[in-house]
Amino acid sequence: MSLAIFDLDNTLLAGDSDHAWGEFLCEKGIVDSDEYSRANDYFYEQYKNGGLDIFEFLAFALKPLAQMKRAELDKLHLEFMESKIIPIMLPKAAELLQNHREQGDYLLIITATNRFVTGPIADKLGVDDIIATDPEEVDGEYTGKVAGIPCFQDGKVTRLNEWLKHNDFNLEGSYFYSDSHNDLPLLEKVTHPVAVNPDETLEDHANANLWPVLDLR
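User: That's the sequence. What structure does it adopt?
Assistant: Structure tokens below.
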């Protein structure tokens, strides 16, 4: 059994779930629409350009989680899934996941987006496990802070190595699918790196290194 590892946003989804959650909060009037939307777009551009300060971003992104009770958040997430996530799920991504299932591989999502947003998405996609940035919880409620190492850039490698220590897997024969140059540290660790609808930087790197490039759109 090999590890088949997948980035989530703009890889298995035709969009970014973190950015979509911010848009959803604006639409619902839960946050100040103009101010939050500007900041949401600002951080998303930073991410795409490779200059995101992950801790600055998480202080922004996790704050709304601390302003609502968990039960209210969970109810909102159900609506978010139906209105924002289901429409951007990709049939070709579902086929890719199924191909790896049929090969007997273990399906693992690894994403920088926080676990509150992404956990239910991973469940819907039917993967075996997910490694995500963890929001801090106290007594079952979110504090607005991050717990542990953010699952971003080199942090994905660190978090995966920690996961491997507690699970009976290694990276021999492993796959990793991603759209973003932010994931190069992990792409360079696996046996089979695959660029999926890649950004320009990743596409150039993939072509130079003869990595496969997939179009799931």
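Strands lie at 3-6, 106-114, 129-138, 141-147, 175-178, 192-196, 213-214.
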